[in-house]
Amino acid sequence: MTAAVVDGSVLTPGAPLRTAVFDAVRADRDGPVTHELIGLTGHHRPAVRRTALTLLTELAFNGPPSWQGPIEAAAARLHDPDPDARRAAVRLLMRAGGTDRARTALDTHPDPATRIALADELLFHLPHTPCPPGPLRTDPLPGIRLAACIAELRAAPEEEWAALDAQAVAELAALSDRDADRARILGSRWGDALSRQDRERHCYATATRLLTGAAGAHGRRVGVHLARRALQIWRAAPAALTPHLAALVRTAPPALRDLAVDTLCASRTATRLAADDLAALLPTTHHPRSDTAWTVTYALATVDDPRAAPSVHARLASGAPPAGAVAAVRGLLRSGTADAEQLAPFIRQLLRSGDSLSVLTATAMSDDLGPAAAACVPELIEALRTECALRDAQGTEWATRRELRLVTALGRIGAPARAAVPLLERLTRESRQRAGYRALALSRITGERHFIESALRSPSRLRRYVPDRSALFEWLLDHGGLTPEQSRQLRDLVFTLPSGMQVFGARAVWRNEGPAAAGELLAVLPQYLDDDLFGPVAMTTLAAMGEHARPALPQLRALIDRRTRLPHHAGSDDADMNADEQLLEAARRTVAAVTA
Asked: In terms of Cα–Cα distance, which of 550, 551, 547, 558 is closest to 583?
């Protein structure tokens, strides 16, 4: 256990030694494992002290109300020279000792950073035993007074709003340099507090005051983070706050400018509104591998701005693909600015690298390029052969994601990938994600229907859900249409059970049957409109239905008329915002198509 604490591996979820530690402490709260951990809180290395304190904090959850050994260890480390260790000690003191012990430490401890950490824990991390924020509004430290104002704003009656707003701005102006690293936390908490009271316009007004310098340099940084939280909560925020953030892009010092750039680029709507200022920034960023340069490039590319193309090509040519390279290339393809002659050598290089992530990135780009990636066929075949040999040796039953992507990419290239046919015909593994993916690739390359027709006659081995075979039917519709038996099969797959096939296959039903299927499709598709994965696909089918989709207009308009973002749980607040913006864009396009 000591070795696992020293190297940090004990914090890895699911690690066997971590499980053993939890089991041992549950069996004996004050036994030798606990004593060893307490001893490690005094280790000479700060990282080890932080790990031991963090592990004790996790062990204190659902434990006894007062766990004396860890309490004393936490109290001793409140004077730790490492700031992160002090913050970890504060969290342990709170979990093991409770509100009273933390409040006593807040009243007696001399270090400002430790006192601020204690106040944060008391005000924001104890939902069941909250600390009244009122007394802390007169604390000697402005950082604590500001945190108390924000905490009180969460539930204050309307008649107190003006006084709390004014004090919060005043305290923000009084912050010192040691509080600068709390700007993100303060801005985010402030936005959450205003959101809880549904004070949308007040949030915009406060953020505008801060962004224009009403509370000094630290206030501007907090204002940027408050603006970002507003963008994540309310749909009208980009229109209200983008002009002020764009002004910082033009005039602020580099650090604050980059913060404003990052906030603008997190939102698709704000990126579009500030596109001219962001595009003007590209030549001034020092070199194409800088973080700010790629942030701007990626944001512009993904909203289909053609000015991003030179920077995307330059960044890909300069080395390993950055995060988001595939989405950026897709944006170039939509805007018609992707240069296949520049991209193909880069894709071939990645495929030859053998690195798992690089191969997946290259395969996705090749898939998107389609026939324009014909030059990559030899490398794709070799990568597929290597992957198949590896999985055969392992006895793998199902196709891996990499195998699926490689086969699909070869199929998308079409006839120029004919050299891959013998290898594809020998594949026997199925895909859990896409039924008939190998048959689809063979039909795309050879132009022959019998591969897909044979796959559709074969029963699926997956019994838990309806497999997605929509691409097979779409290809048949493009190459001679469906037989009566295939039409019946398509209807069964789409209308029998809720599934991905129900959404992805709906367009094939519409193409095959036309207005005769409108009623059944309208009974199915509207239930998926607010889903970040299925919603845009369902809307594509509704848009294709045109005036026959008019009964879905109330649901579409209700989605468009929301003031707040849809809760998607896509992995982060920015990801939720991005998903909501894409759904909103798709809904507006769909309404325009249906009402045209």
From this structure: 558
CA distances, 177 to each of 182, 216, 218, 514, 563 (Å)? 10, 12, 8, 66, 37
- Cα distances from 462 to residues 254, 293, 362, 388, 501, in angstroms, run 55, 46, 29, 21, 13
- Residue 433 confidence (pLDDT): 77
Q: Which residues pair with 398 in a beta bridge?
A: 430
Task: Please give the angle made by the CA atoms of 339, 345 and 350, to the nearest 5 degrees.
Answer: 120
Across the range 482-490, mean pLDDT stands at 95
Q: What is the pLDDT of residue 183?
A: 87
Structure tokens at 14: 């699911």
Phi and psi torsions of 469, nearest 5°: -115, 20
Angle at 177 between CA 172 and CA 178, to 5 degrees: 100
Determine the Cα–Cα distance for residues 100 and 151; give it in Å rounded to an integer.
19
Token code pair at residue 567: 């809760």
DSSP, residue by residue, 508-529: HHHHHHGGGGHHHHHHHGGGGT
Residue 564 φ/ψ, nearest 5 degrees: -105, 160
Rounded to the nearest 10°, the torsion over CA 506, 509, 513, 516 is -40
For residue range 205-223, list pLDDT tens digits in order.
Answer: 999 999 999 888 889 999 9
Q: Cβ distance 49 to 80 under 8 Å?
A: yes
Give how far Cα 420 sits from Cα of 62, 98, 126, 368, 414, Å: 58, 66, 60, 18, 10
Per-residue pLDDT for 128 more than 60? Answer: no
pLDDT at 36: 93
Task: Quote the tokens at residue 571.
Answer: 């992995």
